[in-house]
Amino acid sequence: xxxxxxxxxxxxxxxxxxxxxxxxxxxxxxxxxxxxxxxxxxxxxxxxxxxxxxxxxxxxxxxxxxxxxxxxxxxxxxxxxxxxxxxxxxxxxxxxxxxxxxxxxxxxxxxxxxxxxxxxxxxxxxxxxxxxxxxxxxxxxxxxxxxxxxxxxxxxxxxxxxxxxxxxxxxxxxxxxxxxxxxxxxxxxxxxxxxxxxxxxxxxxxxxxxxxxxxxxxxxxxxxxxxxxxxx
Length: 232
Description:
This protein is of the alpha/beta class and 232 residues long. The chain is 49% helix and 16% strand. It has helices spanning 20-25, 43-52, 65-76, 96-110, 114-125, 134-146, 148-159, 165-170, 188-197, 213-216, 218-231; strands at 4-9, 30-33, 58-63, 81-87, 174-180, 200-206.
């Protein structure tokens, strides 16, 4: 089997280590690239950066914020993307509540309270069963490596993003939608919407799992991504 070029895009509080399980166990079927996506304060700019450093033809999987980047990449260069996997994300723009939350998070970071912002996100990011043990330490450490400045730039990029529902409806490639049943950041309805809009959309749910599927249920997430790469 010829390996596919696979771009894995991290989420808001994530660096490349969020994809550690997938990087290891998909390497037999994919040449994997994990871009940093933290140098540009616009979604358009983030997508341009990833496209500029990626092979010509790519499969793209985006987690959370990475899903927004993946959709913007398809908007800019649909001919280069062979398939999309959108994990724990939404095609909609922010609700008023989420928009206010971003403004508050940016202000808190600018006032030196980055650590408090991250700690306050844990209950939204992780299923209650996973708010103990190794992930409770892993996620804040990973966010610390991302750092306050990159975190703020990513928030600003998300503020600038477009509604992508019409874009998803125009996709003529396989679109796999994956989410945790108890995702408290992006609702099941939002994931169902993406799968319904996409011509070749499929929804896969991971049970007893919150927003961070690739960390909380890595074996399940990797198995679903393998299925997407081989069979979709």
